[in-house]
Amino acid sequence: MALGKTIYVAALISSFVYAVAVNNAEFTRKAFPSEFLFGVASSAYQYEGAYAEDGKGLSNWDWFSHISGNIADGKNGDVAIDEYHRYKEHVELMSEMGVDVYRFSIAWSRIFPEGTGEINEKGVRYYNDLINELLNKGMQPFVTLCHYDIPQALEDQYGSWLNQRIADDFARYAEACFEMFGDRVKYWTTFNEPNVFIPVGYETGSYPPQRCSASLWNCSAGNSSTEPYIAGHNLLRAHAYAVDVYRRKFQADQGGFIGIVISTLWFEPLTNSSEDLEAKDRIHAFHNAWYLDPIVLGEYPTIMHKFLGTRLPTITEDLRHKLRGSFDFIGLNYYSALYATSASYLENSPPRNIYRDSLTTLTEERDGIPIGNQMYPPSMICVPYGIEKMVNYVKTRYSNPLLFLSENGFGNKGNDNLPLLQKLNDTFRVECIQNALKYLEKSIRQGADVRGYFVWSLLDNFEWVFGYTSKFGMYHIDFTDGLQRYPKLSAYWYRNFLQGKSESHTEEFLTDFTKKHAGNLNPITAEA
Ligand code: NOJ
């Protein structure tokens, strides 16, 4: 009784404190634990460019962006935002902003142009330079070994993820990176979002290697019913082998941490019908738990076994031994929430991944969640409250693991014809990120062990099949004018947030903008 009362009072106090925090216009990093890390995130293909420079081999994305015809604006990452040549400028922007940590990825094809064999020293030099520049400016590197892109040579030679050889090749590549960079890199992740790039590569075929069942999505080869699970299984092997190498050979001396980054989506049932409740559990398993269950618990989710039967490869005792617990932390990329509903309309289709069928195809919006809006990727829909739900889901399901919120942000459709000021005035992004941070902070107060948060992204960049049409940056990039950078309102806001200042970022932003564009008496219509 006494305990119940204490819990009740504590809950009341905490909801009061929370209400104050949420309404407090002075919400800054000071609301977070002092050692909490704040950063920005990027990836090699989306930022670097220099796709065939200094000995780099072609990646699957170089190949795909050139021949697929699937990129919204018909463009590619050949130049991207030229981080390969402008890394110093980017590091400087981060330093001015006051970030603690930069999450970026290494292009496997820059280190091993053919996927295996000879190391490309010029590629190594580039990452050494970037890492050293960050450290010199007081920032930590947080490195992803594979953020969607792999050497195309491995696709051509043996079918990449469909062949278990890739696990050994990935482990060798990872080992080379630990050996060359691990004296300075203390945060490693093996993969970014396997629960996205495997299904879109092998189920719908909309990303490389464009494989799917011809009857479903018109690919020239593939099998949407089986290949996603074979590819995913080989990826789990690759993850387990790389973590094993790190732990056996490097971790004790280098004193770093290793994990994996997963895309997370929060799902609500569309109605309270038992069918929709089941659809919600199913999609949670197929999206959020597909890779995390094996890595944390050593087995695929029960629901996946139930629906896939023998299509789901078996985790052998040997692999289970390596997989279970193969992480020091988990990275969660969170942007949005979706409704789940039963996929009865697909009852007659061939067996396939259930989780896509679970997304509703209705067209209304409820409680801020668009229902079945398939026009945009979820990262272009902002649903901040789901961050707290998602973190709590992971906390409960996996016994409170150490977490990073490895991506969060908001993508808007760019409009090249808008005046510059309108392009920069991204109040919607500031609100989206600020609210997400408030819910994240609340989840920490509820006991989640979250150690850091990354905004996706510092700069506008190449958004995969959306090309450059979808804008995620806190800096606008003028692609028509030498890739000039312009800080958006969100860049001012994040800098003030990180510096613990609560002065109005809007005023500062407008004053600077007017000063810079003094030649134009009306900043509202000023063009770049
Ligand atoms: C997920 C991916 O990791 C990243 O590459 C992508 O650009 C962002 N989220 C936004 O969609």
Secondary structure elements and their pairing?
Blueprint: H1 2-23, E1 37-41, H2 44-47, H3 60-67, H4 83-97, E2 101-105, H5 108-111, H6 121-136, E3 140-146, H7 152-158, H8 165-181, E4 187-192, H9 194-202, H10 214-217, H11 227-254, E5 257-269, H12 274-289, H13 292-297, H14 302-308, H15 317-323, E6 329-340, H16 354-357, E7 365-366, E8 369-370, H17 386-397, E9 403-408, E10 412-413, H18 420-424, H19 427-445, E11 450-455, E12 470-471, E13 475-478, E14 484-487, H20 489-498, H21 505-516
Parallel strand pairs: 1-2, 1-11, 2-3, 3-4, 4-5, 5-6, 6-9, 9-11
Antiparallel strand pairs: 7-8, 10-12, 13-14
The structure holds 1-deoxynojirimycin (NOJ).
Residues 43, 46, 192-193, 333, 377, 379, 407, 411, 456, 463, 472 line the site of 1-deoxynojirimycin.
